[in-house]
Structures are given as C-alpha cells and as structure tokens.
Amino acid sequence: MKDSPENQMVSKEIVFDKQEIQLSIKQLMEEFAELEYQFFLEKNERSDAASENPNLEIGNNTNQETAA
C-alpha cells in the first residue's frame, strides 16, 4: 500500500534530530531541578519563620503592628 503524496510530504516535514531532542530534555530537566530547589528553599524559609513566631500563619498576616 503506497502512501498518498500528501502523507509523504507530512512524514518528510516531521523529522526530529535525536541529539536536539536529548538536549531539549536535558535543559527541561535542569530547569525543573532549579525550580524544585527554589520551591524547597522557599518552603523551608516559610517553615522556619512560622516556627520562630507561633502567631505567624503562612499567607495570613496577623501582626497588629504592621496592620496599624
């Protein structure tokens, strides 16, 4: 069964370079690792701040001095 000329054109246009894909995946993994690390640091900062001040609720400022 022979592909139609239309199908042949589409298959020729979709050519992926394996090395290019691997590089893209590597870049995405590095970016994800950096975002994950930043999230981890921010989460620890919030956790440390909350443990230092038991009246502090994450995302909710109940400090009366700053409200005044």
Helix-strand pattern: HHH
Please describe the biggest sheet, giving its number of strands, its sense, and whether it closes into a barrel: none
Mean pLDDT: 76
How far from one another are the termini? 80 Å
Helical proportion? over 70%
Number of structurally distinct domains: 1
SSE class? mainly alpha
Region (Disordered): 45-68
Biased composition (Polar residues): 50-68
How are the secondary structure elements laid out?
Elements (H helix, E strand, L loop, with lengths): L4 H9 L4 H35 L11 H4 L1
Walk me through what this model shows.
The protein is mainly α and 68 residues long. It has one domain. The chain is 71% helix and 0% strand. The chain is built from 3 helices and no strands. It is rod-shaped and about 75 Å long. 0% of the residues are buried. The mean pLDDT is 76.
